[in-house]
Write a structure and sequence with these properties.
alpha+beta; two-stranded antiparallel sheet; two-stranded antiparallel ribbon; 20 strands; 26% strand
C-alpha cells in the first residue's frame, strides 16, 4: 500500500494534481489561495499560486500591481523607491517629486533647468516675469516690491521720482533741493556746468551758480574794493546800495576818517562818500 499524499489543510489527495509547498507543508492550490497566500499591498487581494509575486521588506505585490504610483510605469526589474503609505515610485518621478517647485508655474525644477533664485524662492528662468508688463526678466535686473517684481523700465515708470530738470525717472542716487528731486548730473552750475551736489552754490532767478561763477558772472562789484559782493558766501553778507552802486557794508566808509557808514548818515561829494562831520572840517 502506497503512502498518501494529501493537502495539509483539506486532506484532499494531491496525487496527479498541482500543489504548492510552503514552510515544509504541501497544500492544494485552493487552500493556498485561501489560507497561505500573501496579500498584495496595492490591490489588497491574495497573490494566488498562479500569480507572480514580488516582495520587498516584508511587503508583497502582484507583478502587475508593482507600478509607479505617479506614472504607472511597471517597476518589475526597474529601480524604485518605497515612500510614504507603502507606495512605490520610479526613479524619474522620485527626482521630480523631490525637486523644488517653481514659484511661477508650480511645476518642478529639474536638475539642469535654468532658474532664478531670490530669498529662498525659485523660478524657471522663463517664469520669472515682470508683474507689470509680464515680460521675462530671467537673469536681468529687477526691483522687488512686496510680492511683486518689476523690470527696470516698469519700476522707473511706476515708482521712480522724476527729475525737476530733465523730467526723466531717478533710478539711483540723486538729490533734493527745495523739496524737488534732481539727478546729480542735472543739478549743475549754469555757467561752468560742474555738478553742485555737496558744494556751496546760490540760486539766481531759477539758475544755479557755484561760488566762483557767481563771483565772476553774477555778483555786483563793490564800489569800494572793486571785488564781487558775494552775499551768502562768508564775510560781506550785508550790502549797501546807493544810486546805481553797491558796497560791502564794511567797505561803505568815510573817505577821510574811514568811519563805517552802514546805516548812518553820510554825504557824497565828487563821487566820494563822507561822514556827516568830515565835510565840515574841510
Amino acid at each position: 500500500m502506497s503512502e498518501r499524499f494529501d493537502c495539509f489543510y483539506c486532506r484532499d489527495s494531491l496525487q496527479g494534481k498541482k500543489y504548492v509547498q510552503k514552510e515544509g507543508r504541501h497544500c492544494c492550490v485552493k487552500c493556498f489561495d485561501k489560507i497561505c497566500a500573501n496579500t498584495c499591498i496595492e490591490c489588497k487581494k491574495p497573490i494566488g499560486a498562479d500569480s507572480k509575486e514580488l516582495h520587498f521588506k516584508n511587503r508583497y505585490w502582484h507583478d502587475t500591481c508593482f507600478r509607479c504610483v505617479k506614472c504607472y510605469k511597471s517597476l518589475v526589474d526597474e529601480p524604485f523607491m518605497l515612500r510614504e503609505n507603502n507606495k512605490v515610485w520610479c526613479g524619474d518621478c522620485t527626482t521630480t517629486e523631490d525637486a523644488p517647485k517653481c514659484k511661477g508655474c508650480f511645476k518642478p525644477i529639474i536638475a539642469g533647468d535654468q532658474n532664478v533664485e531670490y530669498k529662498k524662492m525659485v523660478w524657471h528662468k522663463d517664469c520669472f516675469t515682470c508683474s507689470q508688463c509680464k515680460k521675462v526678466i530671467g537673469s536681468g535686473s529687477f526691483f522687488p516690491k512686496g510680492d511683486d517684481f518689476y523690470c527696470v523700465s516698469c519700476h522707473e515708470n511706476k515708482f521712480a521720482k522724476t527729475c525737476a530738470k530733465c523730467k526723466n525717472p531717478i533710478t539711483s542716487g540723486g538729490l533734493t533741493y527745495q523739496e524737488q528731486p534732481w539727478h546729480s548730473e542735472c543739478f549743475i552750475c549754469s555757467n561752468c556746468k560742474r555738478q553742485l551736489g555737496g558744494k556751496r552754490f546760490t540760486a539766481v532767478e531759477d539758475e544755479f551758480y557755484c561760488v566762483e561763477c557767481y563771483k565772476q558772472c553774477v555778483a555786483k562789484k563793490c564800489a569800494g574794493c572793486k571785488n564781487p559782493i558775494t552775499a551768502g558766501f562768508g564775510r560781506g553778507t550785508s550790502v549797501v546800495n546807493y544810486e546805481d552802486e553797491s558796497w560791502h557794508d564794511y567797505c561803505f566808509k568815510c573817505t577821510r576818517c574811514a568811519r563805517g557808514l552802514a546805516n548812518k548818515r553820510f554825504v557824497r561829494h565828487d563821487g566820494k562818500i563822507y561822514c556827516a562831520e568830515c565835510p565840515k572840517r574841510h
